[in-house]
Amino acid sequence: MTSSRRLRLSCVICCCCLLNLAFNQLLLKEESLFVLEHVAVAHNHNPVQNNVEDRHYLVKNTSLWASGADARKTMKVYPYKIPLVQWTEETERYIAERWHSVQHRRSCNRVVWFQPWFWGITSQIRDYIDLVIISVFTFDRTIIPQKWHSKWCPDAHWLECFFQPLQGHQCDDVQPEGKQTQVLTELGSNTSFYRLKYLTRGSALLDDHNRLFPNEMWDMLITFHEVVFRDPEAPHAIIDATLLKRNFTELYYGLSLSALRAILAKVILQVRPKILAKAKALVEEVSSSHDNDKKPFFAVHLRLTDKKLDEGITGSLALPGVSFVQQALAQFVQITKSNPINGTLLVLSDDPRAIDELREDQELGTSYKIHGLSDVQAFFREGKDYQGYLKDGHTYMEKQEMFDKDPQAVYDYYESVIVDAMAAGLRADYLIGMGCSGVSQLIAQWIGSRERTEGNALSLWQEDLA
Fold it and tell me: DSSP character for 163?
């Protein structure tokens, strides 16, 4: 940010002090639902230039799954219209530079080596971004995953099988050392080295936001209006984030974490060139038949197979299918007052049969262009392995038997998850998905990052329709 921008923003903030006091009194008296009119302060200075008036946002009757919670976290559904969070290109530059300065230090100091928990690939991504937020941005500490190689990814280790390098080489010749800890706040100490066996349940940042969320950095970006909370009823009115944080703390942090994850999905999760090329090829293929730019392009993620094993909210959810998609589209019409008929459904599923069901449905199959992405069945050389996968989902791919017998199938499967999610993020206008699924969350974050808008505002979650 330039000095002139800082000076101008300081003047604006000072001019609004009296207004803020008055609005604060109104907020303290408000005992019912969150009333945006009581918080909104219209500023002439508005560096975020998103085309908010030309876009439909899904900011009512929603929960905040794009914040990164998993199935074991109980998420609140907000029945009223919630704020819209957006940010500037300068925000992305600042966060990218700060990330690089910590992860590419000149010497190996202030480091946490961590051992990942190996479950679904997008859940591992969610774990990693959790730790990035806590270690890099809150505690200024480099994070380095312990070396891990496998038969199915012999040329790289862990997430770097799919993404560009996530740290520098300053610790390449240093053996992991230091105290073993599970207490995340210890990463803020002056101790040079820690070791961490990391397993998140996707809620640490929501539950302990005062200590683990990078409040100093985020507050600074909000102060200079590089990150803004908007009134969805009056998109050019900026909401006073200080009052929102004070009076609606859970909502504020849920939205802030969703926005920060979308930014990090853009600046950190840079896929390898061959994966990006495959995603772009898929986008080009499906876009060629989407001949009406005025109609929405939906990414639809149907998570079947092993999702019921995740416990938590998944136990009460019906397996998604035709009725779920129909219900989501009806909700879209109700919220936006627009007609999505003749739009496109870009369908991702861990069970290819679900895509066929959508195509064969008389209503959906004739009213929408329906495209599937990667064919999971094509990755398996033996029919029994495919049947085992349909029964056990991605946990089947984690069996040592599959690693030993067909490591290429394991890699192709995991790569397809990233390719399909990236393709959806590059092209879709909206997501219809399962909130507690890491795949759906990643798609929402990538869609949001493209528009510099937090992902919940562009998503319909199955949990909210149940």
Answer: B
Q: Are 17 and 196 in contact (CB under 8 A)?
A: no
Q: What is the DSSP letter of 66?
A: G
Using alpha carbons, select from 34, 41, 8 the residue that is nearest to residue 241.
41
How far is residue 304's CA from residue 372's CA, in Å, rounded to a whole number? 15
Task: Tell me the DSSP string of 236-305.
Answer: EEEE-HHHHHHHSHHHHHHHHHHHHHHHHHHHT--B-HHHHHHHHHHHHHHHTT---TTS-EEEEEE--G
CA-to-CA dists, residue 1 to 51, 93, 135, 221, angstroms: 22, 10, 24, 10
**294 class by beta-carbon count within 10 Å (0-12 exposed, 13-18 middle, 19+ buried):** exposed
DSSP conformation class of 21: H
For 153-264, strand residue ranges (E) read 179-181, 193-197, 227-231, 234-239
pLDDT at 181 over 50: yes
Mean pLDDT of 140-154: 83
pTM: 0.86
Pairing relation of β-strands 179-181 and 142-145? unpaired
**Bridge partners for 111 per DSSP:** 142, 193
Q: What is the pLDDT of residues 242-287, one digit of tens each?
A: 999 999 999 999 999 999 999 999 999 999 999 999 999 999 888 8
The per-residue pLDDT for 339 is 85
Both tokens assigned to 329: 């589209």
d(CA 440, CA 451): 17
Residue 28 CB neighbour total at 10 angstroms: 12
Take residue 44 and report the two structure tokens written for it.
């002439």
